[in-house]
Amino acid sequence: MTKKILFLLLILASSVNAQNPERINPDSLNVYSEITELQKTVGSLEKELENQEKINNRSYSSISNQISAASWNLTIFGILFGVAALFIGVYVTYIERKIIDLKDKNETLLEKTLKTKEEVVAINDNINNNLNKIFLKIRREETIHILKRLTKIPEDIGNFTQQLLSRELERDDFNYLKEAYKNLGPKPQPDEDSWIKLDLSHHGSYQLVFFQHFLDLALKDEIIGPHMADKYESAIKSSFKNDMIKSTEDFSRALVDLGLENRKNDINKYFEGLSKSDFKNNSDIMNILLNSLQSRENQFKLFNLIEDEDHTLPSKLLYARILKKKYKDSKLTESEKITLENVDELIVRFEKSQEAKEKT
């Protein structure tokens, strides 16, 4: 716009000078000179303006680039922040769930712990209240283990004899011992230089256990029964009173079942063992023997089957006295009268024999 105004002024001045050349004066020349100066100034200003515009454009471009870069950085940062916030949110949610789950597990564990504590207390009370039953159960399991071992290694009886003698065995345990005894093989013949003569053989150990726990079953067994009589003396000497009470009950029961007359050798060996032991004057054991025979006939028959020998006489006399005391006021048969008369004669003969021994 400025250029157009200056251009019009120049045209106007030129036309005036052309029409009136004679009128040109110094003032006009000054004006023209000023106009020229103004044109130069305007041109200079225009250049400065252009330079300033270029500078401004560059500044605007730089600022725009910086703003764009900053915007891009902010965008990237925003995206990263959003992703980070997402991961943080997921992580916080995961931790929260873990904490809740841990809390639930802790509560469950606490309940289980309390329940376990109650069970432990109950078990402890049960153990304290049933200590004897638990001990017997453990002892029973150990006994079964020993018996099963003997069926595989019957020679091991020497290591377990005392344990088996000191325990209560059940009737079914006889089958284990019987199998082990059969697996042992035939009894070796004693040798003068052998330890077997001391009656410490494996067979003797089994027979001792049979005597104290299963005498009736052993006597009824075809393999074991025939060998039991030779063991009575040492077995009776090795027994306590409670062992003898049980063995005597078993012995009487076996005599009744098998028939007294069929077991005369066993009867005399048994009375010989009693006569040579501390039980020869034990009336409790003899009463058990007499009463376990079940019938009056068997009681008198037993007396008649016992031999009148020195090695059987002490126990036979004790049995005779108990038998006479039991039936002295009863109505007797002829055979029973004869038996009791023999009892009196036996007592008199024994007393004289004892007096003679004392004098010598």
Task: Describe what you observe in this structure.
The chain crosses the membrane at residues 74-95. Keywords: Membrane, Signal, Transmembrane, Transmembrane helix. Residues 1-18 form the signal peptide. The chain has 360 residues and is an all-alpha fold. The protein has three domains: 79-129; 130-213, no CATH class; 222-360. It has helices at residues 2-19, 26-129, 131-152, 157-165, 173-184, 202-213, 215-220, 232-237, 241-258, 264-275, 283-291, 296-305, 313-327, 334-359. Helix 4 (157-165) runs parallel beside helix 6 (202-213). The longest helix is centred in the N-terminal third of the chain and has 104 residues, at 26-129. The protein is rod-shaped, with a radius of gyration of 65 Å. It starts with a helix and ends with a helix.
The largest sheet is: none
Mean pLDDT: 83
Tally of DSSP β-strands: 0
Helical/strand content category: mainly alpha
Taken together, the total number of domains comes to: 3
Summed up:
With 360 residues, the chain is mainly α. It is 78% helix and 0% strand. α3 runs parallel beside α5 and α11 packs across α13.
Task: Give a quick set of tags describing it.
mainly alpha; signal; 360 residues; rod-shaped; transmembrane helix; 14 helices; 78% helix; 3 domains
What is the fold's blueprint, element by element?
Layout: H1 2-19, H2 26-129, H3 131-152, H4 157-165, H5 173-184, H6 202-213, H7 215-220, H8 232-237, H9 241-258, H10 264-275, H11 283-291, H12 296-305, H13 313-327, H14 334-359
Helix pairs in contact: 1-2, 3-5, 4-6, 5-6, 9-11, 10-13, 11-13, 13-14
Keywords: Membrane, Signal, Transmembrane, Transmembrane helix
Signal peptide: 1-18
Transmembrane segments: 74-95
